[in-house]
Amino acid sequence: MILTCTSCGAGNRVPAERLGDRPRCGRCKTALAAEAPVSVGTTEEFAEIVRQSPVPVLVDFWAPWCGPCRVVAPELEKLAKRRRGEVLVVKVDTQALPALGARHDIQSIPTFVRFDHGRETQRVSGAMPAPQLERALGL
Question: Is 25 a catalytic residue?
């Protein structure tokens, strides 16, 4: 993954297994903003994150045209910030990566899937507040 430093603008390559940690910018040493949901750009990137993350991965399968997906986005940001280092929140745009949505049998959006060590362990669909989402996915 490439995380952009909010301080100096440098791009930092961060291995998937370190995304749950508190990585720092290689140039200015500022903590990188990994607490915000991480957007996935390729199926390979998704597979690497889900397989190598040391913490549970909460994946939001969404699309830009989906109203409920936009409504739940701030709730996911809250969850990602509050549970930083305990859960990694990842967003997958099913419009940009339709094969990934199909591979995981996404029937409706938003759908939230929890992965532990590369395996799907729980799934829930529909927009909901962060606390309800945490309970539904056993986080």
Answer: no
66 is catalytic: yes
What pTM value is reported for the model? Answer: 0.78
Of the listed 5, 25, 28, 66, which one is catalytic? Answer: 66
CATH architecture of 35-136: 3-Layer(aba) Sandwich (3.40)
Q: Are 57 and 50 in contact (CB under 8 A)?
A: yes
Q: Which of 34-48, 64-78, 83-97 has the lowest mean pLDDT?
A: 34-48
Per-residue pLDDT tens for 79-89? 888 887 788 88
Please answer whether residues 55 and 20 qualify as being in contact, where contact means their C-beta atoms are separated by less than 8 angstroms. yes
Question: What is the bridge-based pairing of β-strands 88-93 and 57-62?
Answer: parallel
